């Protein structure tokens, strides 16, 4: 280990190690739960299964980044040194990209397996079986996230929609949280289970704290 590496490690704070852990937990849990990825390229593997498995991994990272975005916005905290409104917006774009990639891989995997474009997965269906209802929660979260992003883009022309878009993110996180926790087996195993507890409880506390701060500011 060279001197520059040691210097970088010494400069790291507790929140930096915490952030690194948050980014490692989804990948490690997914690998331990999924096993050998090479198996999904063998002839006896189901069509589109690898895309489905990859979609689940991307989904885990998407909900973690969505939570970080929510916490930094509600509590106005700096996730690391050099944090700025620009980085906050860029994190939002990365989160949106992961969500879109998660959905794209999932739809592609199902389409390959069924032999036709599974466009109906992009429409919420609460009248089907359990799996379809849970997917519907994620679909609504996807479209609301896209709308919130559009509001952020046009915030300079219509400032009021920016406020709506920010509060809409609470609904996006709540729906995304329920969708990912109820549909994914990885979400209820290993370190991810405890991370979901942390995200759910801290998200609720941050929301209540923001309401309290807003009321205090208006008094």
What's the SSE blueprint?
Blueprint lengths: L2 H9 L2 H21 L14 H26 L10 H30 L15 H24 L5 H25 L6 H29 L1
Helix pairs in contact: 2-3, 2-7, 3-4, 3-6, 3-7, 4-5, 5-6
3D architecture notes:
The protein has 219 residues and is mainly α. The protein has one domain (15-218): Four Helix Bundle (Hemerythrin (Met), subunit A). It is built from seven helices and no strands. The chain has helices spanning 3-11, 14-34, 49-74, 85-114, 130-153, 159-183, 190-218. Helix 3 (49-74) runs antiparallel to helix 4 (85-114), helix 3 (49-74) packs across helix 6 and helix 4 packs antiparallel against helix 5. It is globular. 24% of the residues are buried. Residues 5-10 have low confidence and may be disordered.
Main sheet? none
CATH architecture: Up-down Bundle
Query: What value does the Rg take, in angstroms?
Result: 19 Å
Count up the helices: 7
Outline of the structure:
The chain is mainly α and 219 residues long. It has seven helices and no strands.
Write out key terms for the chains shown.
Four Helix Bundle (Hemerythrin (Met), subunit A), 219 residues, mainly alpha
């Amino acid at each position: 280990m060279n001197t520059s590496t040691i210097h970088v490690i010494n400069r790291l704070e507790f929140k930096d190690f915490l952030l690194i852990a948050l980014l490692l937990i989804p990948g490690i849990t997914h690998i331990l739960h999924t096993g050998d990825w090479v198996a999904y390229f063998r002839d006896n593997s189901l069509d589109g299964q690898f895309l489905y498995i990859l979609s689940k991994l991307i989904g885990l990272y998407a909900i973690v980044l969505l939570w970080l975005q929510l916490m930094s916005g509600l509590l106005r905290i700096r996730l690391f040194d050099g944090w700025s409104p620009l980085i906050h917006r860029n994190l939002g774009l990365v989160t949106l990209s992961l969500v879109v990639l998660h959905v794209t891989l999932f739809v592609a995997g199902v389409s390959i397996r069924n032999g036709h474009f599974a466009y109906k997965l992009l429409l919420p269906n609460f009248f089907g079986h359990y799996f379809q209802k849970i997917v519907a929660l994620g679909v609504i979260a996807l479209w609301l996230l896209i709308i919130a992003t559009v509001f952020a883009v046009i915030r300079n022309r219509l400032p009021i929609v920016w406020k709506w878009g920010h509060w809409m993110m609470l609904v996006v996180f709540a729906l995304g949280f329920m969708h990912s926790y109820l549909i994914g087996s990885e979400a209820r195993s290993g370190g991810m289970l405890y991370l979901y507890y942390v995200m759910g409880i801290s998200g609720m506390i941050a929301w209540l704290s923001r309401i309290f701060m807003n009321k205090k500011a208006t008094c």
